[in-house]
Amino acid sequence: MDDLRLSLRLLRAFMVAVDSGSITGAATMLNVAPSAVAAAIDRVEAEFGAALVVRARARGITATPAGRALAARIRPLIEDYSSVMKEGYALGLGLQGTLHIGYYAPVAPAFLPRILQEMANDNPDLRFNLRECDNITAQTGLLDGALDVALFAGDEVLAGVETRPLLDLPPYLLAPRGHAICQRTRPEISDLKDVPLVLLDLPVAGAYVRGLLRTAGIVPHIVATASSVEMVRSLVGAGMGLAVLNMRPRTSVSYGGDPLVAVPLAAGTPLHLVSGRAEGAPRRLVQAFQDRLHGWFGLAEAQDLITR
């Protein structure tokens, strides 16, 4: 049985007619012809196979007990529908509600807060939910509706995700201040042979570094792995080893207070940072955020995230 054979328009016409006790009165309230209201009542009665109103030429209509019960059930349905439509229009017309952002961009805290604060200043009713995730989780979040927009490495893009490029991120070495490798202008990947390494062990990032080392014919000497950039930075700062990273935060000190140095590598294919959303027309809020995000990445200060 098709549960959607009666439209909300027909049910609303029936409810208004029962409430007003008049087909003509209901037609005036709904701004339709009386014949349309009468036809709606006929359709509803035919669907349920019951007499729901009693028609009296002089006195209008009177609902039967079944008709009154049905009208009472329809009323909250119509009210819920009106509420959903109002919320939907608000989402489309104004920068309000909650923007759900996923990021697989290890130093997103270096730039996202400023962009979001500017949006919040212009739109006091706006709220933000930020979720750090890996590359695949960010994209599946877009596809299942858990996220509105995401930042991630766009080297592996799932079907149904639409991306816009933000920045190309070449690899660099992270070392504690005073390490001998800091004396070299542009060390080679081959210089990492037998060097203790700390690996950012996340999807894409971990495979990317291992691929660079493998291409250079190096069997990596990994002494520690971590799933966060700041832990990697702190391990490097403490002297555990060096790390190969792509995006640089706007500080040269680890959480542990140790000074760090970013040294550009002579070669290495960059990772591609992108913003993404599910394919299709975006909400105005999503579009506004992406426009601000890409506007910031067009500024000179965005280049501070790159080690050259």
TrEMBL record:
Record-linked PROSITE patterns: HTH_LYSR
Keywords (A to Z) from UniProt: DNA-binding, Transcription, Transcription regulation
Domain HTH lysR-type: 6-64
Gene3D superfamilies reported in the protein's UniProt record: Periplasmic binding protein-like II (3.40.190.10), Winged helix-like DNA-binding domain superfamily/Winged helix DNA-binding domain (1.10.10.10)
Pfam families given in the database record: HTH_1, LysR_substrate
Family: Belongs to the LysR transcriptional regulatory family.
Protein name in the entry: LysR family transcriptional regulator
